[in-house]
Each structure stands twice: as C-alpha cells, then as structure tokens.
Amino acid sequence: MPAIETQQLRKVYVSHKKQPGIWGGIKGLFSRENVEVEAVKGIDLSIEQGELVGFLGPNGAGKTTTLKMLSGILYPSSGEATVLGYRPQDRKAEMLRQISLVMGNKMQLWWDLPAWDSFVVLKELYEVDDAKFKRRSEFLIETLQLTDKIHTQVRKLSLGERMKCELVAALLHSPRVVFLDEPTIGLDVVSQKRIRDFLKDLHREDNCTVILTSHYMQDVQELCERVVVIDQGSLIFDGSLDNLSSTFSDFKRIRLTFRESLPLDRVEGYGRIVEHSDSATVIEIPRQETAAVATRLLQELPVEDVAIEEVEFDEVIRALFSRNDSRETSSD
Ligand SMILES: Nc1ncnc2c1ncn2[C@@H]1O[C@H](COP(=O)(O)OP(=O)(O)OP(=O)(O)O)[C@@H](O)[C@H]1O
Ligand SMILES: [Mg+2]
After folding, report:
1. Does the pLDDT at position 70 exceed 90?
2. With CB atoms counted within 10 Å of each terminal CB, which end of the chain scores lower, N or C?
3. Using a 6 Å cutoff on CB, does residue 68 contact ligand 1?
C-alpha cells in the first residue's frame, strides 16, 4: 500500500467579496458575492513508503494547500486522499501520531519558552515514553547542532536556530510521514546546507516518507530523486529529476574542448553559444538537432573531447515558472 495516495484531490476556497464603502458593507449584509479560487484542481498522486519527493511549483500553484489537505488541516472540496491508510480529514489520533507538517514560514513553538520546554510538552502530547524521548531528542539535537541553544527563549534565537528547533519539535514523535513546506525559506546558504544534511540523515535513520516543497533548487537536487510539479493547481510533471529536464527543456548543450585555441567566430553558426574560452565552448542546440550538429562539429573543428548535457535543472525550473508568470500577466 502506498504511504500517500490521492485521487482527484481538489480544493476550492470560497471567500466573500467585500464591497467598498459603507453602502457596500450594508449591501453585503443582504447579498454577498462569493469568490471562488480553485487552488487544487484534481491531483492524482501515489507515493510509496520511504520515498522523498520534491513538490515544486511557482507561487500560488497549490503546494501548501495540498500539504494542508494531506495533513488534515483542510477539508478537500472533492476527491480522496489517504495517508497511511487514513483519511486525513478525519484527523484520527492514530494518524496524527504518525505524521508531521513543518512550515518554514509559520512557527509552532512557544515564543517565550526555551525550545526544550516545548519539546517536553510535545513528548507528553504524543505520549512518547522516556527512553525513546531521550534517544530521539539526543539524535535530533545533536544532528542539528543545537545543544547550546535549547535552553534559550525561542524569541532570542536566530531564524536558522528557530527553524532547527521547529524541526526537532516536529520530529520528536518519529513520524512515518513528514510534510516539509519550505523548511529552508529565508535561511543563509550555510544554514540551508545544514538542514539539507540533517534531512538526509533523518531520512536514512527513519526511512520516513517525505514530501518537501522548496523554492531552492539545491534542496530538491540534493534530496529528491522524484519530483512532482504543479502549476495553477494541476499536476504537470511526476517523475525523476533527469526526466524533468528532458521533458521541459527543448534544448541540449554540447560541451566541446579543442586541441588548439579557437577564436569565437570559428564556433559561431552551430547554435547559441553559452560559454566560450580559448579551448572550450558550450553550445545550446534544439533537442532534435543534437546528433546532426554534434556530427558537424566533430567533422569541422579540432575537437578533443565532446559531452552532450541536459540544460541545468534550475534553469529548466526557472524557464518553466517564468512561462507561468508571463501567462498570468497576459491573461489579466
Ligand atoms: N485561505 C485562503 N483563501 C482563499 N484563497 C486562498 C487561501 N489560501 C490560499 N489561497 C489561494 O490558493 C492558491 C494556492 O495557494 P497555495 O498557498 O496553496 O500556493 P503555494 O503553491 O503554496 O504557493 P507559495 O509557493 O507561494 O507558497 C493561491 O491562488 C492562493 O491565493
Ligand atoms: Mg506555499
């Protein structure tokens, strides 16, 4: 049985449009105009126990909404979800004890208490026994290098330290399914890396099922073999990272090294030149023409070495998401 499964999972937010001014307010008492936003438009997903899946999409794509439905915070408008065999919206205690949702932009720890005090409260809440709590808290606190921070009031910690404490709090009960919604948002590159390394350790240790959203491509590249991409509420890709590049990039790159130094004009006319130095050049070529152009390059230039590469993952994503931006503005 997959750890997470959805069938046509859908969420429509309904809000009431406020009319401007006093008159509008009074009119609103009698007839309220509802505004509907279809944030998630019927998503089918199946994630096996132990997978670590990157969940990508531009702002407003519906990622957080999906994770909230999967963790039982939001009721789906239609469709089905099962997490560890439970319907998340039923919020059964047995399910809640086995899952966790971490939101990078929403702190759940008590602001005025040291993190340790919150951990102890959570221990009681989740009914973690003493020995387990000791082992687990030590593992989390040491791996995240928090030992000298947990007795300081949370409000006095840096953003990165707070985030790490949030992770400890969310993972103390050894959840089998973990939803991570932008756990590295706003952190400097060193802290981001530390959290990534921690997530690798955690995943290895627990073999938990993880869905991770992040706008930092490095997170996804280092952690996830599989990525799911949504755009305007619909799933547009589900597969491996490598396949993502070949699906969404119409180009490949040919990297050439030469036996002698070549002036720029010798390498012109084959495709878009991405990089050029005396003895090396990278040329971008439409995917279907790769073989033909590579053959010509080998025949016509003093090539020492040639490599054909996919366009970098983060460039593919950037292109994909900016396509979305331009569509949004043009439809306005
Ligand atoms: N409580 C709400 N009421 C009405 N609309 C909402 C609500 N929450 C989210 N939305 C809308 O639903 C859509 C999806 O939002 P969601 O937060 O799921 O996107 P996201 O993919 O997490 O984006 P981001 O990358 O910015 O976090 C957006 O258009 C958003 O404006
Ligand atoms: Mg979000």
Report:
1. yes
2. C
3. no
